[in-house]
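Problem 12. The chain below contains 93 residues. Write out its predicted structure in token notation.
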Amino acid sequence: MSTNETNSASMLHGHAAYVAGAAKETIGNLSGSAPWQAAGQDDKAAAVEEMRAAKQTTVETQNPTVGKVEEMLGKGVGCEGMVEEGGRASGGS
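Solution.
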């Protein structure tokens, strides 16, 4: 696996972990479970750090289609970092 593929995998894993954390936090909010809320917030924070670390070593060129998908997913789950990075990669907002 090349360096770029490894970094992409880390970025993708970070996004998936963020979405999972957001879902966990939402379940905690709906059920009133403080442990689920906290676990979701912790998962989201760890995911953001993973994405930042991957971004530090990622080549700035990215597939515009992947960037647009990332931007749309970010808007859907409320992840500003995904929106920003996806917009930059797709050449959009």
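Discussion. Confidence is low (pLDDT under 50) at residues 1-7. Students who got a different answer should revisit the alignment rule from Section 12.3.
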